[in-house]
Amino acid sequence: MRLREFKRLARAGRVRAVIISDGCRDYVVEARRDSGAGLLTDRQGRPLRFASLAEARRAARHASDITLAMRVAADEACAGKSGAHSGFSLLPVAAGAV
Predict the structure, then answer these.
(1) Over the stretch 10-60, which tens digit does the pLDDT of each residue have?
(2) Residue 73 reports pLDDT greater than 70
(3) Which of 46, 64, 73, 81 is the most buried (most CB within 10 A)?
(4) Is residue 70, in this structure, part of any structural domain at all?
């Protein structure tokens, strides 16, 4: 999904965002709608990559719900029900946080 389409849907309250981080790498934003999910892409269809969490948060700021998904390297950190099988820890991002 292109950023322009994401912003239009987000302003209408019809899309949620998941900011995904894989350790020390950059961030990507996944747009989630009732009809499916996909990463935000550039004009060539490549995933948009953000150097910081603040940049990714600004791109997703109009989404109805924003969650940060971070890959957790230590097995002990992802024990329990949430994220136990995915290797990701999920944290809600507050509207005014960044």
Answers:
(1) 888 889 999 998 666 799 999 999 889 999 999 999 999 999 999 999 999
(2) no
(3) 64
(4) yes
Strand partners, 70: 21, 89
Centroid of chain to Cα 70: 10
Residue 97 lies in a domain: no
Domain count, the chain: 1
CB 85 within 8 A of CB 11: no
Domain range spanning residue 9? 3-92
Q: What predicted TM-score, i.e. pTM, was given to this entire model?
A: 0.75
Which two structure tokens, joined as six digits, stand for 35? Answer: 């009809």
78 part of a folded domain: yes
What does the alpha-carbon distance between residue 32 and residue 15 come to, in Å, rounded to a whole number? 6
Residue 74 lies in a domain: yes
∠ CA(59), CA(25), CA(73), 5° rounding? 120
Cβ atoms of 30 and 38 closer than 8 Å: yes
Identity of residue 10: A
